[in-house]
Structures are given as structure tokens and as C-alpha cells.
Amino acid sequence: MGEQTFDTGVGSGWVMDEVVEFDEPISGCRLMRLATVARLDEGRGFEYVGYTSTSAFLTHRCGMSSGEASREVFVARSLDHMRYAVKAAYAGKISLTQLELLAHARVRHPEIFTEDQETLTDAVSGLTVAETRQALGLLVPGPRPTRRCRRCRTGAVAGVPVEDVERTLASRRRPRPRNR
Are 26 and 36 in contact (CB under 8 A)? Predict the structure, then answer.
């Protein structure tokens, strides 16, 4: 059952349900755009119209900030290496932000990601973005930046077996609310 909102003068009803309904097609469109950006980047089609990079093209022609364009290109370049995670994103099992976090994990630790892509993707399914960051952080050995300062801290857990991560996550997993 959906949640009812307060009457704002525009109309009452199931506004939150409408917002959720838009999320699925928007995510699908963003995934298709990522695949198209990957093709543009690989074919270097941006050079024919005078741009120096795919990011520059996205910044100038699509109105993205440079940071957003760089993230878009980074994730687009990762799609071919993360087929299972991409399928999970298309199916709505993980969000695009979680897909981006998995892409960063793949770059940091390609050996772990290649061997356990399905397990890692399934492990973060149903988690919040913060919980996904924490789960993937367990697998990242060495220093990591903190939010308080740009200096790196040590003490990240190194070499944690995937089974331990899954067990830890299973105790915290909450189902995502889905209103259809």
C-alpha cells in the first residue's frame, strides 16, 4: 500500500508512488546512455567535431559538470568488465550509484572483482548506498580517504574473505520497499 501525501493544492494522492514509478524508466535510460557513451568513447567520435575527450563533449554538449562527465565516462568504460552488475542494474536489483561503487571496486582490486563479481553484486543488492560503501570498503586494503580530511587513514581491513562480508551484510540487510 502506498503512502498518502498532504494536499499541496496541486492535488493529493500518491505522489510518492509516482516518483518511484519514474525511477525505473529513468534508470533504464541512464544505462542506455552509459552504453552509448562507451561506444562514443571507444570510437572517439567526439574528435570529428573538435572535442578533446568524451568528458569535454559531455560537458559542452550535454550541460554536465566536469565531475559528472568524468564519472559518466568512468562508469561507461567499466560496463564491458561488469556485465553481471550491469544486468543487475537493468533488473533494478542495484542502483546506478551502487554500479558506480562496484566499478571503483573493480579498478582498485580487479582480481577480487573478476573472481567474485556475481557474489559482490548479489551481496550489495538490497543495501543502501552507505551500506554498499561499507561492504566494499571491507574488501579494500590499505589507506582510504576519510570525510573529515584528505589525508589517508590506515587500518582498513585487508584480505577479508567474501563469505565474511556476505555474513556481515546478511545480518544488516533490509528489504527495499517497492510500491507497484
Answer: no
On the question of pLDDT at 174 being above 80, the answer is no
Residue type, 119: T
Q: Which of 121, 116, 77, 73 is nearest to 101 (CA)?
A: 121
Sorted by sequence, the CB contacts under 8 Å of residue 52 that are 6+ apart come out as: 46
The pLDDT tens digits of the residues spanning 120-137 come to 999 999 899 999 998 888
Rounded distance between C-alpha atoms, residue 53 and residue 43, angstroms: 11
70 contacts: CB under 8 Å, gap ≥ 6: 55
The whole model's pTM is what? 0.69
- State how far the Cα of 70 lies from the Cα of 66, in Å rounded to an integer: 6
Q: How far apart are CA 125 and CA 134, in angstroms?
A: 13
- Cell reading at 15: 505522489
Three-state DSSP class for residue 7:
coil
Rounded to 5°, angle at Cα 94 from 73 and 14: 110
Contact 16, 30 (CB under 8 A): no
Start-to-end Cα distance in the chain = 9
Place of cell 499541496: 8
pLDDT one-digit tens code per residue, 72-85: 999 999 999 999 99
